[in-house]
């Protein structure tokens, strides 16, 4: 799982930076300011959780377990659902895609909760 989480962290970090640059330069004059802000929210949460995936991968070297694996998986799902739905919403204008976004938010929260439980269960 460590390799997978490192790969996902790298891919999501890379694409997050690329999408942020795309929004700043390519979408600036094409989207309304409020839609550009929605896109940037997707970018921010993607990059935050790419870093969280990196942390999960590094923590897994010292304290492997199901809770850390669950946290990493939930962070990845959260990025796809939360950030992905915001990108699609802003680029397509299909408002119904906003229904998906909260599921990504719940995945993020569940991932952080798994991290809390993993820390709580540490001995020492």
From TrEMBL:
Primary localisation category: membrane
Chain segments annotated as transmembrane: 47-63, 70-91, 97-120
Signal peptide: none
Keywords from the named record: Membrane, Transmembrane, Transmembrane helix
Keyword Membrane annotated: yes
A GO CC annotation given for this chain: plasma membrane
Bilayer topology annotation: Multi-pass membrane protein
Keyword Transmembrane helix: yes
One Pfam family here: DUF423
InterPro entries noted in UniProt: DUF423
Localization in the cell: Membrane
Family membership noted in the UniProt record: Belongs to the UPF0382 family.
Name listed for the protein in its UniProt record: DUF423 domain-containing protein
Organism name: Stutzerimonas marianensis
Native organism taxonomy: Bacteria, Pseudomonadati, Pseudomonadota, Gammaproteobacteria, Pseudomonadales
């Amino acid at each position: 799982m460590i390799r997978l989480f490192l790969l996902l962290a790298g891919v999501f970090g890379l694409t997050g930076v690329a999408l942020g640059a795309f929004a700043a330069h390519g979408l600036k004059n094409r989207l309304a300011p409020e839609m550009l802000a929605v896109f940037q929210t997707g970018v921010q949460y993607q990059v935050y959780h790419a870093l969280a995936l990196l942390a999960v991968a590094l923590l897994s070297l010292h304290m492997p377990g199901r809770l850390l694996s669950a946290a990493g998986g939930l962070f990845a799902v959260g990025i796809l659902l939360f950030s992905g739905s915001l990108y699609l919403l802003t680029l397509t204008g299909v408002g119904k895609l906003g229904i998906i976004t909260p599921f990504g938010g719940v995945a993020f929260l569940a991932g952080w909760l798994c991290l809390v439980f993993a820390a709580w269960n540490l001995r020492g």
